[in-house]
Amino acid sequence: MTLLNPGPANTTLSVKLAQVVEDICPREKEFGEVMESIANGLLEFVQGGENPKAVLLSGSGTLAVECAISSALRETHKLAIIVNGAYGQRMEEIASVHGLNFVSFKSDFLQPLDINSIREFLLRERPDFIALIHSETTSGLLNDISAISRIAKEIGAKVIADCMSSYACYEISLDEVDFIIASSNKNIQGMPGVSFVIANEANILEAGNAKSLYLNLKAEYEYFKSTLQMRFTPPVQTLYALNQAIIELKNEGLKRRFERYKANNTLLRQGLQDLGFEIYPKDSFGVIITAIALPDSIDFHCLHAHCKKYGYTIYPGKIAGLHMFRIANIGAITPNDIAGFLRVLKDFIS
Length: 350
Prior knowledge:
By secondary structure, the chain is α/β, with parallel strands linked by helices. Helices cover 41% and strands 16% of the residues. The protein has helices spanning 13-17, 29-43, 61-72, 86-97, 115-125, 145-155, 201-205, 217-227, 236-252, 254-274, 300-309, 335-349; strands spanning 2-3, 52-58, 79-83, 102-106, 129-133, 158-162, 179-183, 194-200, 279-280, 289-293, 312-313, 315-316, 324-328. The strands form 3 sheets. It has a 7-stranded mixed β-sheet, with helices on both faces. Strands 9-10-13-12 form a 4-stranded antiparallel β-sheet, covered by helices on one side.
């Protein structure tokens, strides 16, 4: 099955087979060495920073976002959340559940951010932290991290970025983002079950404010630093797969992975337009996800069933009130896979 959903993504056979290992206690030294290899390997795909560290967590990407936000902020802090998609809204939910002091800048889900308006908002609100999505999985919008970072530096705020759909494809710098959050099952092409936060050690050591035993970023880091273990039981086989996925990304190279995804996305967007579909975003789109308007005459569930019959999984839209579906061109797929999907789609609408 070719997965065209925005994660979990297709994996290579070697990543799948990496899970087939002898049973091992995760408290053994040998497994600690695997964990250390992963934590160090993840750092190779970010730039900048001072003494950067990766903190591994057992759970989906949302767990890592909740861990970072709830751990970084104290009761006296103010958080500004930039919302232009469902995952920005999820950040609002997290902040609300944890009783944090936050304000939101709300933007259209299909339009680029208005940086001037954001600047006015942030200069007025003067938050201690700014949280946003880098590549908004709702639509495919790629938000301008660099521009927002410059404003953050102007007001002395730190940036927390959900980079689920950008890490391991785009270059991301700890000189612009203070907390980079991602997971094992998207562009890095591993299995679901591991998420992580990458930050300078000094920022991690200040992030011990969570009102949660499990979601304490500082505590997790300090435990790993002294033991090379997670505080709680890790997903052992998933970590072996992640270690292999990191090796394969190193071999392919970040730039070549970006170019492969870009080729997939270019072919996809052109093919959809040739078939008469209206695609979004129109501007500021990345190379990861495309949102497609569905005519009223097409039922998504029928389309999904047709595509699945021929080996392709597509994904529903996530913008309330709009009849859309989404395609992600990430994972271990090629332009030939995209071309095959376009043929299946053409057959459906013919």
